[in-house]
Amino acid sequence: MEQRAIEKEICDKAKEWIDEYGEDFLIELIGDYVEDSTARVARLRQAAAAGDAEALTLEAHTLKSSSASLGAQSLSALAKRLENMGRAGNLASLADDVARFVEQYGVVKASLEKLRSAPNAFITQER
Amino acid sequence: MKILIADDDPTIRTILQSALVRLGYQVEIAVTGDHAWAALQAPEAPALAILDWKMPGMTGVEICRRLRECKDVPYVYVILLTGMDSLDDLVAGLEAGADDFMTKPFKPAELKARLRSGRRILDLQRDLLAAQAKLSVLASRDALTDLWNRRVIMEKLDQELVRAEREMNSVGVVLIDIDHFKRINDSLGHSVGDEVLQQVSKRLADTVRLYDSVGRYGGEEFLIVAANCNLHETFKLAERARQIICQAPIMFASGAIPVTASFGVSVAMAGDKPDPKALIEAADRALYRAKDLGRNRVEWLAPKGDDMVELR
After folding, report:
1. Which of B13, B19, B104 is nearest residue A68 as measured by Cβ atoms?
2. For the residues B64-81, what does the mean pLDDT come to?
3. Pair (B128, B14) in one structural domain
4. In terms of domains, do B133 and B181 share one?
5. Closest chain B residue to A72 measured between Cα atoms?
6. Does the pLDDT at position A104 exceed 60?
7. pTM score, two decimals?
8. pLDDT at position B2 over 70
9. Are A67 and A52 in contact (CB under 8 A)?
């Protein structure tokens, strides 16, 4: 998914959060998400490499809902796919999906950091 | 009101905390299932818990199940958080005793609405418990004298006899009847009669020890159950009560009247089979003997009907 589309998703959700709880809340939320998710993505990669289906399922499960909370629906969908594969114990054909997920996470993270540093500019640019 | 948030995902914790604080709730945070369980066991534990299904340590569902196994503790309203796709989870969670569900990610409006229904249940439950406590007082006390009513004092006698049998103790009973009560009622009116009943009751209640029970047995009859007392001790208790009742007149709005009472004592000895009926009957016959012998005195009889030969 291209960066433009990802930024659009995130922007829609960010507007909701700002309307509800304000800009400071959004900045805090992004900080929590990025810090936690970066660690989780690293653990998810390790789990995939080590063939640890249970750990992979758990990390994917959490990334699924936290990513959706920030509007990153397509990343959330990829996480869900990984969670389902992990639950089915289907790790053999996973490498491509993990790589896609990691790459997409990088885009989401970059967009969120851009949003965090200048929420107004980010949202206005989306409009 | 205090709410527990238990989730290992800081994103969800931040969203929930922010929302709850804005809605005016106090928030406690747990990052694992075991933390959450400990927080719910603490004194002044939160009444409402938002639990993530999947957490390190105990899962939200396990916490739910364990909460519902605890009887006699304040109810905790549980909202479980789940992923987006799990009907099976939903069913299992409700069966474990969750009150409500919320699917992640959720919108602030949804959270608000679910909290509102949780509060409604908790408020109803609080009102119900208060009403129950009030009723249980009303149902166990005599309205006029505030002593135990007949049903409760007889229950206490039963319980005391069972315990005495187990612990090889004796139990004393004292049956008390106010002397010439009918005459007081007839000559001075029922409101003075009621006043006499209330003040005699107060004197009896003030006389007994903390672990004795006093109840209103009938119109002007009272019963004391004296835990762990042999004949000598029960007699002494009755004699003390007799003196306290007759030593000063009962004061009422338009005057004062000297009042006395007669006392019948009986004792279930250590090792006796519990037989409340025989015990009360013996105390009743002892009471009639006290009346026959001139009133304002204490007499005693053994449950079998024999005179007891023990030191006074």
Report:
1. B104
2. 90
3. yes
4. no
5. B105
6. yes
7. 0.68
8. yes
9. no
- What's the pLDDT score for residue B272? 82
Instruction: Compare all CA atoms of chain B with the CA of A69 and give the residue at the minimum distance.
Output: B105
Contacts of B22 in chain A (CB under 8 A): 21
- The interface predicted TM-score of the complex, written ipTM, equals 0.85
Q: How many domains does chain A have?
A: 1
Q: Establish if B309 belongs to a structural domain.
A: no
Measure in Å the smallest separation between the Cα of B104 and chain A Cα atoms: 6
Inter-residue contact B122 to B47 (CB < 8 Å): yes
Q: Provide the residue range defining the domain that includes A31.
A: 3-126
| Residue-wise pLDDT tens digits, B263-303 | 999 999 888 888 999 999 999 999 999 999 999 999 999 87
Active site residue B310: no
Nearest to A69 among B22, B85, B105 (CB): B105
B171 and B288 both lie in a single domain: yes
Half-sphere exposure of B221 (CA within 13 A, CB side): 15
Q: Do A36 and B22 touch (CB under 8 A)?
A: no
Residues B94-142 pLDDT 10s? 999 999 999 888 888 899 999 999 999 999 999 998 999 899 889 999 9
Q: Chain A: residue nearest B102 by CA?
A: A65
Determine, for residues B83 and A65 on separate chains, whether the beta-carbon distance falls below 8 Å: yes
To test the contact with chain A by mutation, choose from B8, B13, B15 the residue with the greatest count of A C-beta atoms within 10 A, namely: B15
Domain of residue B43: give its range. Answer: 2-138
Q: Decide if B263 is inside a domain.
A: yes
Contact B108 A25 (CB under 8 A): no
Q: Considering CB atoms only, which of A16, A66, A80 is closest to B9? A: A66
Considering the domain architecture, whether residues B105 and B161 belong to the same structural domain is answered as no
Q: Is the confidence at residue B310, as pLDDT, over 50?
A: no
Q: Is residue B92 part of a domain?
A: yes
Q: Which of B115, B138, B161 is the last residue of a domain?
A: B138
